[in-house]
Design brief:
22 helices; 0% strand; mainly alpha; Amino acid/polyamine transporter I
Length: 460
């Protein structure tokens, strides 16, 4: 069955190379000879470590990358907007939602990485080979709509950050953001490693920024710990924010990206090598997403400490947050906030474009130039800016859309990883299946509750 799925997936797009594969052709790489490139040297080190079972720091660094890239989806501007709103409006009450979503995200991302490592195909490719054609087309359309919602949040976040930094209109920030993302995406011609290093640097900027913010804000640590463990949803708006937090954390496109980043990174000859790669991947996912989870908790706790109960609990915009931070916490806190917003927006926008490419090529075997996809997906953000829609409100609604679309990749991941014909000896255990099924049911329940409340059928 696995061989059949692989052959069908290959037939869907037999020209798959992608910016993620280490063995790109020399003609595609500019600059120095590809044999001496950073990507080739890194791939060689990682391959040796995998074959020998090496555990040195060099091996760890060489093997790392996919989970760090996927973690960008968990600290994007959508997360910042939803955590800001949740903290400002409800204090520490919704910290539990951040923690729960992050724990589930770690589990789901580990499963997605395992799928790519074991099968050599990503989730979109296997879905195209496994499910019926009408189902595949429906999944693709849903995934493309999700990609547009994702890119709206990421692009707007960076644009707002540049606008605040330069004290310029939002449209100026959008132009700068589009130029910056095109430049970063241009690194894909040099292989996967330079792009990974740039994105990792931006992730570090975001993590350090919010790490600094939380110590400047001095949140109530006892209240923070208490509300991380006590689930509560005070009203309908809190329900919307809790759902948005889930959508902003367990992002659908991150699942596709994780399986795509691991699928052809190295040549795996034996089951033992696959086991080693899965073990390392699990450790990397736990580390990278654990850090992302702490950043999200810091975002919400900072917002709760600074804005809640200080006449700012009706805060609606990232711009207002920046303006309020300066008099309350000082100019340094405001500048740090801008840097985090820009780093978050740029890195997640690049990864979102990569995800869109994986989704389109995997489901329908069609590939368009990365620059063209970037241009198409940023159009909704320009419309939002031109029409004058509240950017932060658009960010939050986009995260709700992500939550509504999240069951699609989760259900397909559940089905594929539980099929012995697909995974062989790496088939999900009953415990893993039960946890994945529980995560799917939880997301569906949150979405159903939100829809029932929104339509007035269920009164909060």
């Amino acid at each position: 069955m696995l061989a059949l799925l692989k052959s069908r997936a290959a037939a869907v797009h037999n020209t798959w190379r992608g910016l993620l594969a280490p063995g790109r052709r020399p003609a595609q790489v500019s600059g120095a000879n590809y044999r001496d490139s950073l990507t080739r040297r890194n791939a060689a080190t990682a391959q040796r470590a995998l074959e020998t079972g090496g555990t040195s720091w060099r091996a760890a660094v060489a093997l790392s990358g996919p989970a760090v890239i996927a973690s960008v989806a968990y600290i994007d501007p959508g997360n910042i907007a939803t955590n800001l709103q949740a903290g400002a409006g409800y204090g520490y009450d919704l910290l539990w939602a951040v923690l729960l979503a992050n724990v589930l995200a770690i589990f789901i991302q580990c499963l997605a990485a395992k799928l790519g490592i074991v099968t050599g195909s990503n989730l979109a490719e296997l879905s195209a080979a496994y499910f019926s054609r009408p189902t595949v087309w429906a999944m693709w359309v849903c995934s493309e709509l999700i990609a547009m919602a994702t890119d709206l949040a990421e692009f707007l976040g960076a644009a707002i950050g540049f606008g605040l930094l330069l004290r310029a209109p939002l449209i100026v920030g959008m132009v700068i953001t589009s130029g910056a993302t095109f430049l970063i995406l241009g690194l894909e011609h040099r292989g996967y490693r330079p792009l990974e290093l740039v994105i990792s640097g931006l992730v570090a900027v975001v993590a350090m920024s919010f790490g600094a913010e939380i110590f400047i804000a001095h949140p109530l640590w006892r209240a923070t710990a208490y509300h991380m463990l006590l689930p509560q949803i005070p009203d309908k708006r809190a329900m919307i924010l809790a759902t948005a937090i889930v959508g902003a954390t367990i992002m659908p496109h991150a699942i596709y990206v994780q399986s795509g980043l691991t699928q052809k990174r190295l040549v795996l000859h034996t089951s033992e090598q696959r086991r080693r790669m899965v073990r390392f991947s699990n450790r990397e996912v736990i580390s990278a997403l654990g850090l992302a989870g702490m950043v999200n908790l810091a975002m919400l706790a900072t917002a709760a400490a600074v804005f809640h109960d200080r006449a700012h609990n009706s805060l609606l915009g990232l711009e207002q947050a920046y303006q309020a931070l300066q008099p309350m916490l000082g100019g340094a806190a405001a500048v740090i906030f801008i840097l985090a917003l820009i780093g978050s927006g740029l890195s997640s926008s690049v990864v979102g474009t990569m995800a869109g490419q994986i989704v389109m090529q995997g489901f329908v075997g069609f590939r368009i130039p990365m620059g063209l996809r970037r241009a198409i997906t940023m159009m909704p953000a320009f419309v939002v800016g031109a029409v004058g829609i509240n950017a932060t409100h658009a960010l939050i609604i986009s995260q709700v859309v992500l939550s509504l679309g999240l069951p699609v990749p989760m259900i397909s991941l559940l089905i594929l990883t539980a099929d012995k014909r697909v995974m062989g000896e790496f088939t999900a255990t009953r415990t893993t299946y039960a946890i994945t099924l529980g995560a799917v049911v939880l997301v569906l329940a949150l979405n159903a509750t939100l829809l029932l409340q929104t339509t007035g059928i269920l009164i909060a």
